[in-house]
């Protein structure tokens, strides 16, 4: 059976111990940058995690599997790997982050060329992001307490809500 959370099996592990260590170091560095990108507006998350997945595929398939099964990052990686898709929430977050970043650059730049160049680059990236498809699987709606209680069969929680 196909496991939807299973990562792709498209790369082989390096035989050289030195190369494996270098790929492993690159993977860890990319994960670190990806995590930093979750809070820093100019630093992207998904490209670094894709790089980490590729590096881990060559150094440690167990770490690659762990990354693809991560509850926060795994769905993004699987959507991109299978469909080249970006979820709507991720698109919105990226566009807002770029807008805020451009506003900061525009307000703090000493030369007018800087915001123009930054805005041009950000606009190109924004067009690329917006033109990517959304995942074909439906995004899970934000779980309401009634829905969670009903799905788990917890009738007493439903009674307490009423």
Structure overview:
By secondary structure, this protein is mainly α. The chain folds into two domains: 18-84, no CATH class; 86-134. Helix content is 67%, strand content 0%. The radius of gyration is 20 Å and the shape is globular. The N and C termini lie far apart (42 Å).
Main beta sheet: none
The total of beta strands comes to 0
Total number of helices: 8
Distance between the termini: 42 Å
Overall shape: it is globular
Q: What is the total number of structural domains?
A: 2
Strand content: under 5%
Topology as a string of helices (H) and strands (E):
HHHHHHHH
Structural class: mainly alpha
Provide mean pLDDT, rounded: 79
Biased composition (Polar residues): 153-162
Organism: Azospirillum brasilense
Keywords: Membrane, Transmembrane, Transmembrane helix
InterPro entries: DUF454 (IPR007401)
SSE topology:
Blueprint: H1 17-37, H2 46-59, H3 61-69, H4 74-83, H5 88-108, H6 113-131, H7 145-152, H8 155-161
In short:
By secondary structure, this protein is an all-alpha fold. It has helices spanning 17-37, 46-59, 61-69, 74-83, 88-108, 113-131, 145-152, 155-161.
Q: Top keywords for this entry?
A:
mainly alpha; globular; 67% helix; 2 domains; 162 residues; disordered C terminus
């Amino acid at each position: 059976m196909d496991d939807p959370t299973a990562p792709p099996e498209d790369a082989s592990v390096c035989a050289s111990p030195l190369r494996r260590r270098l790929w492993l170091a690159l993977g860890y560095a990319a994960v670190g940058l990806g995590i930093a990108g979750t809070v820093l507006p100019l630093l992207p998350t998904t490209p670094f995690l894709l790089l980490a997945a590729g590096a881990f595929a060559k150094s440690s398939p167990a770490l690659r599997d762990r990354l693809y099964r991560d509850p926060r990052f795994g769905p993004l990686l699987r959507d991109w790997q299978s469909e080249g898709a970006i979820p709507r929430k991720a698109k919105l977050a990226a566009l807002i982050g770029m807008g805020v970043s451009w506003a900061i650059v525009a307000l703090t730049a000493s030369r007018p060329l800087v915001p123009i160049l930054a805005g041009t680059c950000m606009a190109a990236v924004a067009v690329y992001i917006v033109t990517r498809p959304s995942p074909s699987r439906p995004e899970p709606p934000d779980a309401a307490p009634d829905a969670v209680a009903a799905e788990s069969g917890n009738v007493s929680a439903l009674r307490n809500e009423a």
